[in-house]
């Protein structure tokens, strides 16, 4: 399982046994007042580490930021992250499968809302069962995201689909909107499941498994250990505002994010526009074919030819519909998710201000950043490759249609020629 | 000018003026004048090959279009386009063509030629001219008459018009047509001298007026109905096709935006950069490929338009038949009433009301001499009427026979042409698909290398 294996981590400079994630310059806990908790975690972690003799353990101590009580030590160096990514690419190693479906409308006296069914299948030991089915509403997803951000302020948390309706829709809950949201929510949960750190977050587990009343009561609990730490990080961060020596990597990252954000937004707009134009083309084509049928009614000698043309146009319409659905399945959701990611990342700039004193945060973010970029490249590459494939398939369909028309015409001519023979 | 089979002197005679409905006799004369000696080759329709005119094989082309300025009838300056018409005669022996005539004509002269043909050959489905003003345009296409693309398409349309006439077994022998191709100056005057405008039945233009015909030839009624349907369906088709073209244009062009954005994005990407950049280039290629595709499709639209206008020509023939039939029925009615009058006068019985009859009753009988005189007048009129009715009947039958022969010819031409147009439409679609496959395959390769 990707999360549990602290596989070949690279050695970071300095491996103080007692420190937090490798790069802290001095010994001792990075934050005042948390040494107590770190010892506790340390103890748990060591037990598990003894099994992994052959693997070089990067750090024996839990990262105070990126740990939760379920998982063993999480490797946090960039290279170890890359190994995590490798596991992500191997689906057989995945042990948490989540689907979001069956949107259902609920009407109460105060409000109307939609819940989604979430089915989780897992082989992980920490889960009491191998299959869970729960119902959640958008508010619950928001809660989960909030908790994750609190607990892991240096990690890139996947985006949620928009809260409110994008302009252009009339009804609050029309079918397209619900379907788009469902897909995005499923993506959200799977992204978390695939993330080496986030997948072991306790709130995540509760979200996936708790019954409605259990979730409500869990929500009411005060902020957990991790969120308290997260708050501390943020407090430190804001106190360090205006520090001058920004690490170069963060400048680079910010620059990238700025331009990436611009471009992905444009690509999102272009892709949506293409979908719209294709829809309008389809609408006109649907009107075009029948006119040939109408015409065939008054032309006795051209009936077959005209009807053939009409049927070719009809088949091209079907091919267009398929092309459009390909676009909306493969390309549009992916691009849009990255638009939301980029919006979020623009705000993560704050983290850049964490300096040498909080290098652990830098590293965690940097590692997650590298992971995110790698994912992004793979996702974009695959989305566009799929789009190209859809287009090729579309043109191949249409080509076959018109070629068969030509063949049938030549056959017709040969028939007529042989009829004319005495 | 190359020695043509036509005596140049004779060309200056106006086209023979024949009563409408008997065009063949006039043409025979014309052919006789033109084809001295080789009458047998010229008279049979089956010996006529395409573009065969006055025995020699000729090629006609409208090869150029030029903008001109001049002064119009009201002495105001105007800009118009002139078209160069070149006629070549082809030597049978070596297939080489020699330029025999070349002159410039403007659209209004083509119109004049056509109007003349409509009057002198009312039983022929006269080929239509390309449209005067651009219609059924999709947004990118200009509706401006001076637009070079429109002028180019019109040049082709005018050439097609002349070729249609030259390959028509009857029209190709017309003198005025021949002069159109060969006599630059004075041609307009020559046409007007035929007095064809006076011969034109003004009722033909009154499209909305209905003439109650009791016994129309059913085939013509059906034909009129067909021409209405053809016109309606082709108009509809052209309108929707223009909208489809518009939308297709949009789809292709939006992809061009990817090119620019990919290029800008590639600047910040290390591994993905090259792939993005080259994929972007293919998106640009895709976006620009639509221009040629739609230009080709305009050719298909033009082929349909020709038959849209042919529908009008068909209706004109039907109309002519209607009017002839109406005149015939009126004449027969008139004759019948005169006969009745005569009979009544002779026998003294008054079955029909007539003013004269009433007045004689009121004011006294007329003398037998007066009555005789009237009967005589009526008998003369009846005789004349019977002759006229006979010739009108003959005219009518001739008209129906000749018209129907041309309609059969037209039907075959239409079926051939439309089939060919539909096939060439399919060929265009195939070419568009092949181009699409190629571009997206290249793009896919770039994407997969990212």
TrEMBL record, chain B:
Keywords: Acetylation, Endosome, Lipid-binding, Membrane, Protein transport, Transport
Cited Gene3D superfamilies: Arfaptin homology (AH) domain/BAR domain (1.20.1270.60), Phox-like domain (3.30.1520.10)
Region feature (Disordered): 1-48
Annotated InterPro entries: AH/BAR_dom_sf, PX_dom, PX_dom_sf, PX_SNX4, SNX4, SNX4_BAR
Gene Ontology biological process terms, A to Z: endocytic recycling; positive regulation of autophagosome assembly; positive regulation of histamine secretion by mast cell; protein transport
Membrane topology: Peripheral membrane protein
Protein transport listed as a keyword: yes
Bilayer-crossing regions: none
UniProt domain PX: residue ranges: 61-187
Cellular localization per UniProt: Early endosome membrane
MF terms in GO: epidermal growth factor receptor binding; insulin receptor binding; leptin receptor binding; phosphatidylinositol-3-phosphate binding; transferrin receptor binding
Pfam families per record: PX (PF00787)
Gene Ontology CC: cytoplasmic dynein complex; early endosome membrane; plasma membrane; presynaptic endosome; SNARE complex
Source domain of life: Eukaryota
Coiled coil residues, start to end: none
The UniProt record lists the keyword Transport: yes
Family: Belongs to the sorting nexin family.
PANTHER family in the record: SORTING NEXIN-4
Described purpose of this protein according to its UniProt entry: Involved in the regulation of endocytosis and in several stages of intracellular trafficking. Plays a role in recycling endocytosed transferrin receptor and prevent its degradation. Involved in autophagosome assembly by regulating trafficking and recycling of phospholipid scramblase ATG9A.
The protein's assembly and partners: Heterodimer; heterodimerizes with SNX7 or SNX30. Interacts with WWC1/KIBRA. Identified in a complex with WWC1/KIBRA and dynein components DYNLL1 and DYNC1I2. Interacts with BIN1.
Name listed for the protein in its UniProt record: Sorting nexin-4
Organism: Microcebus murinus (Gray mouse lemur)
